[in-house]
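Objective 1.3, modelling of assemblies. Example input:
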Amino acid sequence: MTTTDRPTTAKRDTYTPETLLAVAVSVFNERGYDGTSMEHLSKAAGISKSSIYHHVAGKEELLRRAVSRALDGLFAALEEPRAQRGRAIERVEYVTRRTVEVLMAELPYVTLLLRVRGNTQTERWALERRREFDQRVADLLKAAAADGDLRADVDIRLATRLLFGMINSLVEWYRPHPDGGAEQEQLVDTVVRMAFDGLRTG
Amino acid sequence: MTTTDRPTTAKRDTYTPETLLAVAVSVFNERGYDGTSMEHLSKAAGISKSSIYHHVAGKEELLRRAVSRALDGLFAALEEPRAQRGRAIERVEYVTRRTVEVLMAELPYVTLLLRVRGNTQTERWALERRREFDQRVADLLKAAAADGDLRADVDIRLATRLLFGMINSLVEWYRPHPDGGAEQEQLVDTVVRMAFDGLRTG
DNA sequence: GTCTATATTACGATAGAC
DNA sequence: GTCTATCGTAATATAGAC
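Predicted structure (tokens):
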């Protein structure tokens, strides 16, 4: 069950870039990326600073891995079949739902992504990809508006921003419960309902 | 018109804690508080690092002054007469409107407040006062729900969080235009409408 | 009020032993 | 893979001249 009883290579109970990442992201989210030193990470991981450099090239690589994971999840939602065909309003609603689900499933990684400021190259790259994602959703909303399925008195760009503002704010307080699957789905329902009962025609 | 032609004390065109604060907050918001060094502030203000220490005790005092200003504005909204009397749903709507207006009027200060993490004493104090404000609004929503003016299928605590999530997300993209008063009011209208058309009964 | 110079500490990252 | 020791840099803050 653990990593110790593997078939061929008797893997030891040590850090991999993956497991170290989980620790690092947790600290990044608590203290902020810039507010986290390698010393902080070292303490949290229970190994020395220099040992961290054995697994990853440095602090920025940890950030890159984390935001990549978040972005991969979000873009995957856009690529799903149900986000590709059907009426635009239904595609928007589906992408909204899946975005919230990805946010919940990859909470620490998405949290970090949403707090990136742009001081390093990695952060600027992350911001660019985020804008790309937002634009794709904005295009979907635009199509739904063209179909007459969105109320006409709200600017599409503004509606997109408020929609994302509401969704993204979940990272500020949502904490997953063990075996809280039903609870999670109910939360997703509420978010989608709150968003679209204020957006949809009729 | 400028500070040079004052009646008694011929004030020189130099920094005060107030004017220096505006510069500092701007940099804090661009780079993040932890990502901003006194050197950054020095360059942005056009004076040396040590000159900054002549005006303020240090970096943290600038943060304290900034978040205080934001919090003062927000709490003032709760103290206004229209937030004190009348039907709860109307008080909620008024406070929502005023909160958005304060956010716009004090944008850089509120932005900084909303990004505080809790690494220093000042930050923890700010987080505590923010929670206090959120609680006051949540109480208003609770009263409105007791009056039957909010839809019953949404948890009050969740609704409060989503409402603030939407409002607070404005700091991520809203930028005031000179003489854009009408535009601002239209934005406030949209935010309030989007929030309550998804919340209000009927 | 502003400056240069500097004290002191913290940071990211590396060297090299085990 | 992990450690201790350390390098070079950048950080906050102070001293003291003008």
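The domain at 5-56 of chain B is CATH 1.10.10.60 (Arc Repressor Mutant, subunit A).
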